[in-house]
Amino acid sequence: MLTPPAFRTEGEPLPIDAFIAELDHGLKAPGRDRRHHPFVKAVEAGTATKDQIAGWRHQITQWAHPTNKLVGVLWSRCQDDDLSAMLFENIEEENAGKTSGMGGHIPLNYRFIEELGWDKARQAKDVARPETWALRHWFEIALTCRPPVDGIAALSFTAERLNPEVLGRVYRGMQKNYDLSEDALKSLAVHASHVEEEHGSLGPIAFERYARTVYDQDRIRFVVLHTAEVYYNMYNVWQYY
Questions:
Q1: Taking a C-beta distance cutoff of 8 angstroms, is the pair 152, 202 a contact?
Q2: 16-240 adopts what CATH topology?
Q3: Cα(21)–Cα(176) distance, rounded to whole angstroms?
Q4: How many angstroms separate the CA atoms of 117 and 54, rounded?
Q5: Domain boundaries, the chain
Q6: What is the structure's pLDDT at 8?
C-alpha cells in the first residue's frame, strides 16, 4: 500500500491551500488515480465488454447502496450547520434525484446494468467481490466511526470530487463505443454533472475549518490517500467478468 503512517507528533500544520495541493498531488500517484485506471481506458478504447462494464457497475451498486444510507449517519454526527445542509442535499439527491431531476442514483444504476444485458436473475448471482467489500467496510468506518471531517474527506473530497472527470470519461467512452440509450447512460451522466461537482465541494470547506492542526492534517491525509487506494482497487473488479 502507498498510504503513509497516519500520524506525526512534531512540525507545523500546512496552510490549507498547501495542504489541499499536497493531497491533490498524492491522489495522482499510480494506484490512486481512478482517472487513469485500466478499466476507464478500456471503455474509452471500446475494448471492455458489456459484461465487464455491467459487472463493474453492479459491484459499485453493492457498496454504494449501503454507503448512501450511511451518509445519514454522517449527517446526524455533523454539528456544522453549513456542512450538514450540504450533506442533507447529498442524501436527497442520491435517494431521489432532487437536485438533478434524474431520479435516485441506485435505480439509475440498475437501469444501466439491465440495458447492458444483466437481468435481475443475473444480478442476484453476482455477489460482492473482496475489493467491493473492502471499500464498503472502509466507508462504513470513515462515515460512522471517525470525526465528521474524516468522513467528508473520504466521501466528498476523494470520491465525489473526482467523479465528474472519472465518470465523464466513462460516459463519453460509452457514447462513442457502445450502443446504449441516453436513458440508460443517466447513471453516468449524473455523476459527470454539476451535481457531483457540488457534492465534491464539501472537502475544502471542511478542511478550512477543521484541519488546522498537525494531528488533524495527518489524520485527514491518511483518510484521503487510503480511500483513493481502496477505491482504485475496487475498479479492478472488471477483471472478474
A1: yes
A2: Heme Oxygenase; Chain A (1.20.910)
A3: 34
A4: 8
A5: 16-240
A6: 59
CB 116 within 8 A of CB 54: yes
CA 8 to chain centre: 27
Q: What is the mean pLDDT of residues 181-202?
A: 81
Position 147, amino acid: P
Q: What is the model's pLDDT at position 1?
A: 54
- Cell 465528521: give the residue: 148
Range in 14-18, 114-118, 141-145, 196-200 with the lowest mean pLDDT = 196-200
b/e burial code for range 91-128 (CB count within 10 A of at least 16 → b): bebbbebebbebbbbbebbbbbbebbebeeebbeebeb
pTM reported for the whole predicted model: 0.93
3-state secondary structure the chain: CCCCCCCCCCCCCCCHHHHHHHHHHHHCCCCCCHHHCHHHHHHHHCCCCHHHHHHHHHHHHHHHHHHHHHHHHHHHHCCCHHHHHHHHHHHHHHHHCCCCCCCCHHHHHHHHHHHCCCCHHHHHHCCCCHHHHHHHHHHHHHHHCCCHHHHHHHHHHHHHCCHHHHHHHHHHHHHHHCCCCCCCCHHHHHHHCHHHHHHCCHHHHHHHHHCCCHHHHHHHHHHHHHHHHHHHHHHHHHHHC
pLDDT at 170 over 80: yes
Number of Cβ within 10 Å of residue 35's Cβ equals 16
